[in-house]
Amino acid sequence: MLNFDKKELGNLEYSLQREVLCTNRTGGYLNTTIVGCNTRKYHGLMVCPVEAAAGENFVLLSSLDETVIQHEQEFNLGIHRFPGTYEPRGHKYIVDFSYSPNMQLTYRVGGVKLKKEYLWIHSREQLLIRYTLLEARSDTKLRLRPFLAFRRAHDLSTANMMADTRSHRVENGVMNALYQGLPSLYMQTDREAEFVSAPDWYYRFEYLEEKKRGYPYQEDLLTTGFFELEIKKGESLIFSASTSQVDPANLSRQFAEELARRSPKDDFLPCLRHAARQFLVCNDGKSEVIAGYPWFGRWGRDTFISLPGITLTQGNVEGCRAVIDTMVSEMQDGLFPNMGNAYNSVDAPLWFFWTLQQLQDHIGAEAIWQAYGPAMKSILEAFTRGINGGAIRVEANGLVWASKPGVAFTWMDAVVDGDPVTGRDGFQVEINALWYNAICYTLELARQFDDAAFATQWEPMPDKIKASFNELFWYEKEGYLADYVDAQGRQNTYIRPNQIIACSLPYTMLTEERIARIIPILQAHLLTPKGLRTLSPRNPLYEGHYEGAQPERDRQYHQGTVWPWLLEHYVKACFDLKGKGYIFRAEEILGHFVENMTLAGIGSISEIYDGDPPHHPRGAISQAWSVGALLRINEMIDRMKK
């Protein structure tokens, strides 16, 4: 499924739009295009979190150029973009690319056929590349030239006098440590190779995706020299890049054992499941979810929304609980950390309850209450007490109010020049749907496990919230829910997808009749083959394309852009309403993403898509809640068929 041929690989307009991702499950990754030409500042063969820099990702090894040498003729298999040109143009030698079970490229240069295979070692900061000479009619040499960056993934490097260009000899290789405070990089081969020390800066590598996104896009990279050795037909050579020295004698065995652990990625669902596992990161005793590759870190909101899909659909209950436990350990005043250590998400703690509801199917209600009951109650108490100086609070009508100048508390959180693009100050529809669900679920467990004090205190709340919600949000004239209600009680009646959350939760405040009126409206205005639009195309504020510099993109982010994660809740609401009769349509929705296995981040699902057809993939190339949503839809279909 994830194979590309010579014609596709040789077409740079095609191949540079397709990226591969390999991770080590502790935060490190490899990310580049399928032909090995870096088009983003985030691309690199070895990108690792650096503890001394608060866990930020650093690009250590940017790329590795291979040169085949025969009869004193050199054929460089690398490819880089420089101003106005690509040089070298090694992509023209690639005849095959495969991503299953690992990333593999095959090159043909005259009578030489060379296979290259990549493996990131799980739970270690080590990349292995195995070269196998499949065919050769004459004596052949292989030269390997590494290009080093040693800079933050969000930055770019420039030639400087501070870099330590010395290469220190280690067994079958060298160690480079460019800057104080950063890890050392050990580059070794499984058999002795000559290393020629020749430090030099190469200037003005260009990353065209950064140029499109309005960011600086040129950088200088350092090469400290190159490896060179003879290789015979049928022989293999293994190159290791690691932040610690390794035993070269073990590399061949290590490669074989690691490869044997890889699962095949030969169909849609195996690809999704593999992509899901890449988001789980275990490091320093913490288990976290990377929201999306290559530039997102841990986001609290994304963690809870995506977690059931990326773990429980594969039976990974232990992984799910480990992430929840990490998040609970960092909870403060009823909130979870969102981006980094920012406690600014009103919905993350409410999605926490929803995640527990999914986990309950696997471990039972009693285990949920014993492990998480105190956290559940403390969140509800914090909301009623008021959070962030009262910016988040429960009003007399029982509903949650969230408003603070310059702050976007909900998932529609883009801010430009200090102002939220989709200002939703007041009572937000999905926040209050989640609030009601959280209270009802906690009450159910409190009654079941004899927490009389809590049950007595909170017993009147659901009816009050339900009455207030329907009075405040229902827009009878058109038959759907307002997106939010402001301080003056005015409904914002823009057709947005947030109301689908109120239709899909385990505890809903809506009658079946009202849900049946909402869904056709969302289908007519928002539903696309790739997800739900964030705004109706009939709205004058609608933006159908996501492109340009960051301020432009931020203005488009929630004004029509399509988000796949919302499909999970749309499909759930439709199944609740139509039962087995919706199976065919749900399968059709899932089927629309099969083609995405070979677009953008191959084998995964992008963060967002254009609102207008043909709905090009945009944003992060692999997004946790996009992948999780599709796995949940598949799980719903399987359950309905039983």
Concise overview:
The chain has 18 helices and 38 strands. The protein is of the alpha+beta class.
Would you spell out the secondary-structure blueprint of this structure?
Blueprint: E1 3-5, H1 6-10, H2 12-15, E2 18-23, E3 29-33, E4 44-50, E5 56-70, E6 73-76, E7 79-82, E8 85-89, E9 94-98, E10 103-109, E11 112-120, E12 126-135, E13 140-152, E14 168-170, E15 173-176, E16 185-189, E17 194-206, H3 208-212, E18 218-231, E19 236-242, H4 251-260, H5 268-278, E20 280-283, E21 286-289, E22 292-293, H6 300-310, H7 317-329, H8 348-363, H9 365-385, E23 392-394, E24 400-402, E25 415-416, E26 419-420, E27 427-428, H10 429-448, H11 452-458, H12 461-473, E28 474-475, E29 480-481, E30 484-485, E31 491-492, H13 499-504, H14 512-525, E32 527-528, E33 531-533, H15 550-556, E34 562-563, H16 566-578, H17 583-591, E35 600-601, E36 608-609, E37 617-618, E38 622-623, H18 624-641
Parallel strand pairs: 2-35
Antiparallel strand pairs: 1-9, 2-3, 3-4, 4-5, 5-6, 5-13, 7-8, 9-10, 10-11, 11-12, 12-19, 13-18, 14-15, 15-16, 16-19, 17-18, 20-21, 22-38, 23-24, 25-26, 27-30, 28-29, 30-31, 32-33, 33-34, 36-37
Helix pairs in contact: 5-18, 6-7, 6-8, 6-18, 7-8, 8-9, 8-10, 9-10, 10-11, 10-12, 14-16, 16-18, 17-18
